[in-house]
Automatic annotation (TrEMBL):
Keyword DNA repair found: no
Protein name, per record: FecR family protein
Annotated organism of origin: Spirosoma fluviale
Transmembrane segments: 95-115
InterPro entries: FecR (IPR006860), FecR_C (IPR032508), Ferrdict_sens_TM (IPR012373)
Length: 337
């Protein structure tokens, strides 16, 4: 009997309670463009009701203010007091008032900065093994990969400017506005991307810093040493950064493979087991411990669908004649005999 994909089934799927057969039915159903739109609509509604990340800035600020009311000295170890002559320990009343005022000003300044960051920016975050679709106020779409963070201004976005900050990895589909306003993706890796309307992927992962352009045109602004440089990318361009920040530009015939993770697909092309270990660490927070140095250089090619780290490891082990054991957050991999 064919499984009918309903709203209730999709909600079960989003909550992680769908069976393997139900997942397969949803995969087939979502191949249709109209179905995908419906999928994303229900996903957005589900995420509003079940937020995966809630910033705790307000709670932290309230705790901080409570500590200040109750006395900050409770948070610290009382220092040892060395007895001296009484005259040496007395402070002039004017100095005492100045020190109290300075302390209060410092506390208010820190509290204000802490709260302003929360008030001015909305932060989206994904945990290990999680992806998330975000629709921005200007109509652009961003899909966050696992273990990633996107920061978006709460006010003036799309009118005054369109600048977001990314840590991790994300795929962008940018809407072109009538006034040709630029869209800027800032990173913490000494490069940023300037676009008008296009589709591209950005990764700021420590080992795999890269930008892949699917359609349109973007301008990459980066630093090599102390020098600022610019590079205009064309569709199919792949830019990577080495550990010293040097740029390498090449062409890829299939840029879409770099965002296959949006569909829970992993595409490997002569990818070493050591490189796959980096993926497990960055996307799932797991260490892949390879027992043999030669085994670390084994290469794997093919496309594999997996929704969890366990599913991906099981698929790779079956396809590559490997065995593995799980110990906490470590997966020990060896060759089958």
């Amino acid at each position: 009997m064919k499984i009918q994909v309903s709203k209730e089934l999709l909600l079960t799927y989003f909550a992680g309670r769908a069976t393997a057969l139900q997942k397969q039915a949803i995969d087939e159903w979502a191949k249709d463009e109209d179905s995908r739109e419906l999928f994303y609509m229900h996903l957005a509604a589900w995420e509003r009701q079940n937020p995966q990340f809630i910033a705790d800035d307000r709670n932290a600020l309230e705790r901080h203010q409570q500590r200040m009311q109750n006395g900050v000295t409770r948070e610290y170890i009382t220092p040892t007091v060395v007895e001296e002559e009484p005259a040496a320990r007395l402070l002039h009343p004017g100095w005492l008032r100045w020190m109290i005022a300075a302390s209060i000003a410092t506390i208010l300044l820190l509290s204000g900065l802490f709260f302003n960051d929360y008030a001015l920016y909305r932060t989206y975050h994904t945990n290990f093994g999680q992806t998330r679709l975000i629709k921005l106020p200007d109509g652009s779409r961003v899909t966050l990969n696992a273990n990633s963070t996107l920061r978006v201004p709460r006010f003036g976005f799309g009118t005054k400017s369109r600048k977001v900050s990314l840590v991790g990895e994300a795929d962008f589909s940018i809407r072109h506005l009538p006034d040709h306003q630029r869209f800027i993706v800032a990173t913490d890796k000494d490069f940023e991307i300037v676009v008008l309307g296009t589709e591209f992927m950005v990764s700021t992962r420590e080992r795999t810093k890269k930008v892949v352009l699917n359609t349109g045109r973007v301008q990459l602004v980066y630093k090599e040493g102390k020098a600022s440089k610019q590079l205009t990318m064309k569709p199919g361009n792949l830019v990577t950064f080495d550990t010293k920040g040097r740029v390498r530009l090449k062409h890829t015939s299939h840029p879409e493979t770099f965002t296959s993770w949006k569909e829970h697909r992993f595409v490997f092309d002569r990818t070493t087991l050591e490189e796959i270990g980096n993926l497990f660490e960055e996307n799932y927070g797991l260490e892949l411990q390879i027992t043999d140095k030669a085994l670390a250089h084994w290469t794997i090619s093919g496309a594999f669908r997996a929704y969890t780290a366990e599913e991906l490891m099981e698929t790779l082990a079956t396809a590559s004649n490997l065995t593995y054991t799980v110990q906490g957050k470590t997966i020990i991999v060896s060759q089958s005999h």
